[in-house]
């Protein structure tokens, strides 16, 4: 199984960065790669329980992902499972994500730890997606 770990530092306090993850109105501003929006969701990373989101790109393609929030530890981390759905809305292989926040100098570091991704190609695709998503967050969380 391939794993992915990305880090990004932000010039805001850890509590503020945690709000960008756990407050749905903020999360929706950066959730998903650049060029997509989220027309449907039950994103709520402030509590344990199920979640899903549908990301839609500029050509109208829709991509559904769902999971279960497994832990919320303010302002340190949120963990959740992750599984893409196919065109028949069947959920595929499950992986695990932890978004961890650490103090870093005068700001905060976000560590995205995405595990059990299957093979290297799947991990590389997720790395592109998470990197693009973090670019959106970096433009907002200042």
Automatic annotation (TrEMBL):
Pfam families: AHSA1. Residues 12-140 form the Activator of Hsp90 ATPase homologue 1/2-like C-terminal domain. InterPro entries: ASHA1/2-like_C, START-like_dom_sf. It comes from the Bacteria. Belongs to the AHA1 family. This is Uncharacterized conserved protein YndB, AHSA1/START domain.
């Amino acid at each position: 199984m391939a794993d992915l770990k990305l880090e990004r530092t932000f010039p805001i306090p850890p509590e503020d960065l945690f709000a960008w993850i756990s407050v749905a109105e903020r999360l929706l501003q950066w959730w998903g790669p650049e060029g997509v929006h989220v027309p449907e969701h039950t994103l709520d990373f402030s509590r344990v329980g199920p979640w899903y989101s549908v990301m839609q790109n500029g050509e109208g393609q829709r991509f559904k992902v769902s999971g279960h929030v497994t832990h919320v530890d303010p302002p340190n981390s949120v963990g959740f499972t992750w599984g893409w759905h196919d065109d028949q809305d069947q959920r595929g292989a499950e992986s695990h994500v932890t978004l961890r926040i650490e103090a870093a100098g005068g700001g905060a570091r976000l560590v995205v730890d995405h595990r059990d991704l299957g093979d290297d190609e799947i991990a590389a695709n997720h790395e592109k997606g998470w990197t693009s998503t973090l670019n959106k967050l970096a433009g907002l969380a200042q």
